[in-house]
Amino acid sequence: MNGNKEKLVVIGNGMAGISTVEQILKLTSRFDITVFGTEPYPNYNRIMLSYVLEGSKTLDDIVLNDLHWYEDYGITLHTGTTVARIDAETREVVTEDGHRAPYDKIIIATGSNSFILPVPGHDKQGVVGFRDIADCNIMLEAAKAYKKAAVIGGGLLGLEAAKGLVQLGMDVTVVHLMDDLMERQLDPQASAMLKAELERQGIKFKMGAQTSELLGGERVEGIRFADESVLNVDFVVMAVGIKPNIAVARESGIEVNRGIIVDDYMQTSLKDVYSVGECNEHRGVCYGLVAPLFEQGMILAKHICGVETAPYEGSVVSTKLKISGVDVFSTGEFIDSPEHNVISQKDDWKRTYKKILLRDNKMVGAVLFGDITDSAELQKLIKNQTEMTDELYSSLMGTGCGGHKKTTSVETMPVDEIVCGCNGVTKGAIVDVITNQGLTTVDEIKACTGATRSCGGCKPVVEQILQYVLGDNFTAGGKQGICSCTTLGRDEIVAEIREKGLQTSKEVMNVLGWSQPEGCSKCRPAINYYLGMIYPDTHEDEKESRFVNERMNANIQKDGTYTVVPRMYGGVTTPADLKKIADVSVKYDIKAVKVTGGQRLDLIGVKKEDLTKVWAELDMPSGYAYAKSLRTVKTCVGSQFCRFGTQDSMAMGARIERKFERLDLPAKFKYAVNGCPRNCAEACTKDIGIVGNDGGWEIFIGGNGGIKARLADSLCKVKTDDELIELCGAIMQYYRETGNYLERTSEWVERMGLEHIRSVVVDNVEERKALMERIEFALAQVEEPWQKAIRDEEGQSKMFHSIEVTARP
After folding, report:
1. The FAD/NAD(P)-binding domain covers which part of the protein (predicted)?
2. Which position has the higher pLDDT, 416 or 284?
């Protein structure tokens, strides 16, 4: 420790405290910093816990500052250590285990705790809050052993917990006291749309229900409500709210109310002791959201470093929901009353809703559902209580210039405005690193400032700032490689492969100057795909570059077994094939046979050593449920059986599936074929959706029902079956040739532009036929993978009997 430096002790290793430390480090090096954290981890992003719970991220993915960061800045970190009190007389902090650390200044950043309803049975086993990694781990373990869960609380945390548990395979009911979800952030209209969307995703709801007791013995077995009704469950998550963690302040004689009382510079009632974040109470308000946390931290950092700063006067709060496929945002006031002028727009087809509230013609609040691209702009306008004008109205509501909205201008954005709410990065900080450090890519900005490293929602604004600062140099300077191994983008790599005749991934990496000679898990599969797309007849597939599911021709499950999905063309099968599936499932003790959303049968729980035997005895083609390829063609019964059907959707679905199966694509690919406009096969959420009508077929492209939900766009109408097949082939080949690896068609259509795609595959007949010829040539090279694996006895021994595989390459 440096005796010449002031000793700064930070009580709390969460986002508020460490964000403040980051700001202090930018301003001065005069402090010798010691951090105490109760959890056994370095600083991580608590608002990303829902992604850890649903399985899309790990703890490592959400760590904001790893242990090396603390070492690099000379910060002493005590993990797994709770501070009990501050001894003002000796000017020391005292931990629960008796350790003492001297201080000159202290920042209390102890955050908040889950509020557990004080009802009978709240302390039973199987009852947990949702606040930290430990809670996540309990929930992950519970999902392995139990099936029925209840989440008490229909607010932000409760809904995130519910979706995570559904993703883990649990039957989940959200129990909410009020009649509207997220009633503190959403109006009834947005709440109803949110509830409907989450019901589509598998969450059940019990609204207007007051919990009176948790039932069971040592472990929870159910919930009794005030009306005496009972919900049988074996796991309960309490997500009814949070309460500031004021324990250390109270034990130290610091003035507290609901939170730790602070002034406009975060000073507590004890000299040289400050407080920041959710544990605070400022002007009677305790903030439980991330933006105020960073605003307080920036002011505190300047004040504690002796830098002139404006006082903290409170925050205009905003909420953004982080649930897969659901975009919800609100800021400021959101319930309209007679004193408001209301501007609203609702689209049931796109499932979008927008409402802006005005008072005396000034913007004071907004609610967005389904499309939140205007969230950053609205937050700024409402924070400043900007007056509504005709120009602003046209921009925000899409009524001017032919209905097109202008892009949010970053030029007028204040330098101290927070761009990245997850990590508290301002526009000024981003501009500084671009101008002073010569950064030219979003990835460089992310590594330097932390902007975009969490949820990624601020990436478009960061790109706009980059373009604004670099000006004419943006295109060349802002170019990003496909991974950190190279600065080359997808189009450049493909062009170099063609021009130089490169044949293998090793050649590509060597000739094109990869920084890592062996590449990484991001670029290896991409290069293997590009080589196969360019040389379908000569490229030898590099299995080692494939993801594990593709290497094994089956989907690995969390217990190490596999799911096998045989092909059923157009979702149609025969009694003989069904009998084979049943016989094989019984013989090999397959745990479950599940009907998929794509009208196929999952055989879940096949042992690795049984895979080839299961394939052989099924004697059916692979359904490619594991591949970046054509997965399924979903169909309705169409004109063969339905009284409304105008086209034979089952026959067309089977024809399309037989035609295009087994071909590698940039990402997984799904079809739906409907026999009439009633759309029973749900064409609107498929990569290619086809709707029959009296005059032929209508083609839709770019739909997605997954993490980034998107409704498909209407591309064109055709009259004949052959014309439909040709257009589908041309679309798929153009996607194969221009799509980035792992880029779904929903993203590809938005990047390429619908009109551009239409001009290539619909309007240009010669180019369409050329695309069809190229896809026909590629299709001629494909082979049924299960039969190939069955014939390859040596490969069977290596792949299926001698190695252990993991979930990622």
Report:
1. 7-280
2. 284
A 10 A CB-CB count for 743 gives 15
Contacts of 767 (CB under 8 A, 6+ apart): 730, 760, 761
Share of the chain above pLDDT 90, in %: 63
The structure tokens 């794509």 sit at: 598
Long-range contacts of 718-722 (CB under 8 A, 24+ apart): 719/695, 720/696, 721/652, 721/655, 721/697
CA–CA separation, 628 and 631 (whole Å): 8
Of 675, 674, 689, 673, the closest CA to residue 639 belongs to 675
Q: Does 1.10.760.10 match the CATH number of domain 628-783?
A: no
- Number of Cβ within 10 Å of residue 471's Cβ equals 8
Q: What is the pLDDT of residues 380-427, one digit of tens each?
A: 888 889 999 998 898 888 754 434 444 446 777 778 777 887 677 888
Question: Is 455 marked as a binding-site residue?
Answer: no
Q: How many CA atoms lie within 13 A of 357 on its CB side?
A: 20
Assign domain 418-473 to a CATH class: mainly alpha
pLDDT at 94 (0 to 100): 97
Establish whether 636 is an annotated binding residue.
Answer: yes
Residue 795 in this model has a pLDDT that exceeds 80: no
Q: Which residue has the higher pLDDT, 758 or 403?
A: 758
Q: What average pLDDT does range 356-379 have in this prediction?
A: 89
DSSP H/E element including 329: strand 328-332
Residue 229 has pLDDT above 70, yes or no: yes
Confidence (pLDDT) at 405: 45
Q: Compute the distance between CA of residue 222 and CA of residue 148 in angstroms, rounded to an integer.
A: 10
Q: Which helix (H) or strand (E) holds 548?
A: helix 548-552
* 713 alpha-carbon distance from chain centroid: 23
Strand partners, 92: 87, 102
At 680, phi and psi to the nearest 5?
-65, -25
Q: Which of 415, 409, 373, 376 is nearest to 391 (CA)?
A: 409
Residue-level pLDDT at 276: 97
Higher pLDDT, 6 or 557: 6
- Sorted by where each begins, the domain ranges of the chain are 6-111+245-305, 114-243, 325-397, 418-473, 490-546, 628-783
Q: Which of 89, 66, 81 is nearest to 36 (CA)?
A: 81
Are domains 6-111+245-305 and 114-243 of this chain identical in fold? Answer: yes
Instruction: Find all residues with CB under 8 Å of 148, minimum gap 6, and list them.
Output: 170, 171, 173, 232, 233, 234, 235
Return the closest-CA partner of residue 464 out of 425, 431, 501, 421.
Answer: 431
* Dihedral, 498, 501, 506, 508 alpha carbons, nearest 10: -40
Strands 669-674 and 630-635: parallel
| CATH class of the region 6-111+245-305 | alpha beta
Integer Cα distance of 641 and 676 in angstroms: 12
- Cα–Cα distance, 221 to 149 (Å, whole number): 10
**pLDDT value of residue 404:** 42
CA atoms within 13 A on the CB side of 559: 13
Tell me the three state secondary structure of residue 292: helix
* Contact criterion met (CB below 8 Å) for 615 and 788: no
420 is in an annotated binding site: no
The C-alpha atoms of residue 724 and residue 189 are separated, in whole angstroms, by: 40
Extract the tokens encoding 678.
């009633």
Closest among 501, 509, 562, 569 to 534, alpha carbons compared: 501
The CATH number of 325-397 is 3.30.390.30
Query: Is 676 a known ligand-binding residue?
Result: yes
pLDDT at 325 exceeding the cut of 70:
no
pLDDT at 96 over 60: yes
CATH class of 114-243: alpha beta
Q: Are 731 and 697 in contact (CB under 8 A)?
A: no
